[in-house]
Amino acid sequence: MNFASFLGDNLHNFLSCTGFSNVTPGHIVMIVIGLFFIYLAVSKEFQPLLLIPIGFGILVGNIPFKGAGLEISIYEEGSVLNILYQGVAQGWYPPLIFLGIGAVTDFSALISNPKLMLIGAAAQFGIFGAYILASLFGFEPNQAGAIGIIGSADGASAIFLSSKLAPSILCVVAISAYTYMALVPIIQPPIMRLLTTKNERMIRMKPPRVVSHTEKITFSIMGLLLTCFLVPSGLPLLGMLFFGNLLKESGVTRRLAETARGPLIDTITILLGLTIGASAQAGHFLKWNSLKIFGIGAVSFIVATAAGVLVVKLFNLFLKKENKINPLIGNAGVSAVPDSARISQLLGQEYDPANYLLMHATGPNVAGVIGSAVAAGVLLGLLG
Fold first, then answer.
1. Sorting pLDDT into bands at 50, 70 and 90, what band is 294?
2. Entry pTM
3. What is the rounded CA–CA span in Å between residue 384 and residue 382?
4. Comparing C-alpha atoms, which of 228, 255, 253 is closest to residue 241?
């Protein structure tokens, strides 16, 4: 073999291993989706802490290569990405996310006005409505349960439940949940305007009462006992949520609380977002069922938002004028913390610039976090 043939053969072998030689239309589509996620995060500031890792992960997961055995694919056992992905596939990351959420959450608004818990509960109607809809579309019961949880707009709950019930659609469910979390500023306001009148949007609520230190600690402990005795299968999420909150409210574990809501949750968010994105490879993601899941997830999210608003309107029929609730905080029952509560505030100030709803909207918002974990536990208990 002469040198020219040797050089030509090696050049051919090299080129056959490059991404340019192995790229498919599916890879291009997924790369465009990943770039779109990054665009939403950078240009629109929609959930940047989630969408940038997920978007970049999609780019990583859709770099084409030839064959297996290189130990670089997220689905190839022994690869670095596969090892990191176990935190998603085995459900390790979501409880740690809930620990951080608990360490940063103030339940004062909910404690001072417990009926706001019912708004968070009402928003979970979207979950069970989507479960029924997914079943009608031919999904198996365990898959329908995983799809339904998208309506909670809680990515951690969606990942946890999908990893237990339907690992085959985990990446689609997770990305769908995070997508709708990011699109809260676009999806929710039209629904809120449609279901309320101008007078309702201008309702001013009484300031919440001051909640004592003892009440906050008691809530962390009693919240754990009551929810987990009711739904033991929700323990991994609810247990970590209330533990994180106890670290925050006890006043004597400040270092642990700061770690949980700072470096720990940041690290887990990076790993979770990157690996969820990388798992959305073209061959796994670009299927008709994925489109169905996104569609059902959208319906679930819309129903959850509408249910929260409508339940507030129902409450107001029985409340005295001075105790009425502004129905604009009903959207916050979905657990997209804190974006859905901010939407309540922004929309309320469009109609009354001096009306401050944020402190009230945090009540159903954190109730939605608890509600989504309870709903995940119920579905896991029934279908697991």
1. very high
2. 0.92
3. 6
4. 228
